[in-house]
Amino acid sequence: MPKVRSGLLDCMHGPENTFTLSSPIGNLELICCAKGVHALNLSSYHDGNSFKPITETEVKIIDKRYDDNGYTYKPALDSVQWLNTYFHKLPNLPCVRQPVICHLMQLTKCSRSSHVSFTTRVWHTLLKKVPVGQTLSYGRLALLSGSTAKASRAVGQAMRTNPVMIIIPCHRVILANGMMGNYASGKKNDVKAWLLRHESVQYAFDKH
Q1: Which residues lie closer than 8 Å to 50 by C-beta, 6 or more apart?
Q2: Which family does the UniProt entry place this protein in (predicted)?
């Protein structure tokens, strides 16, 4: 299985490429190899003063680091399709192929052994068990990931190091009291609030 070190992927599947995508929440940086996605993040810093989403923006590739002789990795194309559906046709999302996450694609229930980190289990659980429109607490996610509610701090660390925003939906993890909690260590809380509103989540974020 590909290894994740400090949120960065040490991939055994060959070279990766970096793509810049347009999106309603700003340009996104997508990194992937031929097998799966390595990272997806906002490509520039945003705070409450600069975050100005443009809801009608189409998701498309606007730049890439290497031309690859005209060939575009399938995980990149799948990500563009999935993100376009997420932002513009959300009810149809369950019908769209979910982009493969490179460092999670071999993780199954049978492989949950001592060599699989708790962080990796948390990411996999969040990807597979927390759909659009649902939220859960850090403690609940710890329980679903095979630990106890006391591991909520470790879940918080897993959220901070999540390399694939939106697809691995760390924005759906909120505080046990219903408050929103931080996103990107509090630097992008406005992005989290926007994503949850986009998913029609009703909870106490307006009081945060």
Answers
A1: none
A2: Belongs to the MGMT family.
Backbone angles phi, psi at 22, to 5 degrees: -80, 150
Residue that wins the pLDDT comparison between 80 and 70? 80
Cα separation, 167 vs 104, in Å, equals: 12
Condensed to tens digits (0 to 9), the pLDDT of residues 98-142 reads 999 988 876 644 454 556 789 999 999 999 999 999 999 999 999
Query: What is the DSSP annotation of 87-135?
Result: HH-GGGGGGSPPPPBGGGTT--GGG-STTS-HHHHHHHHHHHH--TT--
Among residues 11, 33, 102, 170, the one annotated as catalytic is 170
> Burial letters for 83-115: b for 16+ Cβ neighbours within 10 Å, e otherwise?
bbbbbeeeeebeeeeebbbbbbbebeeeeeeee
Cβ atoms of 33 and 70 closer than 8 Å: no
pTM of the model: 0.87
Which amino acid, residue 8? L
Fold of 3-207: Arc Repressor Mutant, subunit A (1.10.10)
Q: Where are the domains of the chain?
A: 3-207
Q: Is 95 a catalytic residue?
A: no
